[in-house]
Amino acid sequence: MKKIIIIFLFVIVVIFQTNVSAHTDHYKNFKSIEMEVFKDNKYIGFSKFFFNKTKKKFEVKNITDFKIKLMGVTVFSIKSEGLEIYENDQLTYFKSDTLQNNKKKFVKLFFDKENKNFKIDGSSYKGTENSDSIVGNWWNHKLLQSDTQISPLSGSIKKQSVEFIKKEKIRLYGKEINVEKFRLKSIDESLPKDKRLDFEIWYDKKRAMIVKIRYKRLGTWEYRLKKVN
Questions:
Q1: How many domains is the chain built from?
Q2: Does 2 have pLDDT greater than 70?
């Protein structure tokens, strides 16, 4: 009986470790993900992710480009390019350059193997961070399992809570999808409201993908997963 229990525990540990360390493998057969960005249900731009996997590395390139116009005048815009590099499922490098309303933002992140943490040089934060933290890009469903996210635009660090809301069906680009709905929020309520995380997130468990994100800030914003290649 004791031997059976030991074998059972061993199997559970192996399964758990595999699930924790294999999230990048969910995307190994994909070339790209395309999300469209909407403001008050009007298309304003896109966020695209391109995947490249080799024997040792997994790379994710991101291009985000959207703008809001009012009476022909651009009142808000973001142009951003980023690169994430993973080795054995560990983020080892991240870099992004962003132009937000003609203001430059940036992040440079390196994994310090000796100290097992991140070294961050960002426009909003410079310092170290726990290596379990996640860069807050929407391709990565592990964002729903993390306590902390790193801004992909400025490097700022935000503690977060994730709450499961319900299972439901949604219609997206003419297709019905079974999803799980979550609420992701900042823990620190002392932050200014425009700096807090407060997202509704719809997750397709079957494909291990975030398919829709919604938040409110001077209107309703949505990211919708349109295409997977």
A1: 1
A2: no
